[in-house]
Amino acid sequence: MASQILPLELIDRCIGSRIWVIMKNDREFTGTLLGFDDFVNMVLEDVTEYETTPQGKKKTSLAQTLLNGNNICMLIPGSAGPEEES
Amino acid sequence: MASSTIQEPFDLIRLSLSERVFVKLRGDRELTGILHAYDGHMNLIMSDVEETIMLVDVVDGAPPGQPATVNVAKRKMPMLFVRGDGVILVSPPSRT
Amino acid sequence: MDDTTPPPPPADQSPPPPPPVQTHTGSPTDFLKGVVGKRVIVRLTSGVDYCGVLSCLDGYMNIALEQTEEHVNGAVTNRYGDAFIRGNNVLYISAAEAI
């Protein structure tokens, strides 16, 4: 069998680099990934939170943050997030 | 300070037994009452309870950001079981 | 028995060097150890923020906070000497001072 990479191995390889986290609702986070656990609770550093509200997009800057894995939907490794020029 | 007697969050609740507590619930509801019992789900038994319900009336077609009218409804219940999954926050009386 | 298990090392081999001492790795557990007793911001999935000193927490992310301020849309809406927050409501716990 060809070398398989498990999904969480990919995330493990992202430790130390920027990651973009998209939640199940209208919320997104970017930050430097410091670590995570089996529930994919994540510790992020230099975090920006993006919130889409009826009043528009809201940005919040945060220091070291433990993000509850319960509402995480997608993870995009190496991305600076919604504001990255593509 | 409280931290000297608290090792886990449930200690905060244990120390509030027989005291009047403030409980914030999902659905913009708040309770104050005497806490008689709790369990690991945060199911609660309370007595002499006053419930406060915030009813927010959003005017149809109103522009976003316009302050909605808030109506507050209150009611009293002599004895109450609260299902734990509705609990957001429990605050004991300040021990100062 | 897993036949990929390597044989035990010979007894005369010197033990491997201890792993480098890391004052903090990045795991959630280590973060939480570092942040107990410090000022934190707890945001709930509803968007409400609780700013206070983190007394302790458990495996469900149930949280005990001291000197807590409740913030809704940036305005202080309540103050609590102590507050227990049920873990299922927690979106994140963020350090509000150096850890």
Q: What keyword list fits this structure?
A:
heterotrimer; B: 96 residues; mainly beta; five-stranded antiparallel beta sheet; elongated; C: 99 residues; 1 helix; globular
Task: Kindly describe this structure.
The complex is a heterotrimer of chains A (86), B (96) and C (99). Chain A is mainly beta and 86 residues long. In chain A, strands 1, 2, 3, 4, 5 and 6 form a 6-stranded antiparallel beta sheet that branches. In chain A, a hairpin with a 3-residue loop joins β1 (18-23) and β2. The termini of chain A are far apart. Chain A is built from 1 helix and 6 strands. With 96 residues, chain B is mostly beta strands. Chain B has 1 helix and 5 strands; from the N terminus they run αβββββ. A 5-stranded antiparallel beta sheet of chain B has the order 4-3-2-1-5. In chain B, β2 (29-38) and β3 (44-57) form a beta hairpin. Chain B is elongated. Chain C has 99 residues and is mainly β. Chain C has one helix at 28-35, and strands spanning 39-44, 49-57, 63-72, 75-85, 90-95. In chain C, strands 4-3-2-1-5 form a 5-stranded antiparallel beta sheet, with no helix packed on it. The radius of gyration of chain C is 21 Å and the shape is globular. Chains in contact: A-C, B-C. The B-C interface holds B 1-3, 6-13, 22, 42, 84-85, 87-96 and C 37, 44, 46, 50, 53, 55-58, 62-64, 66, 68, 80-86, 88-89.
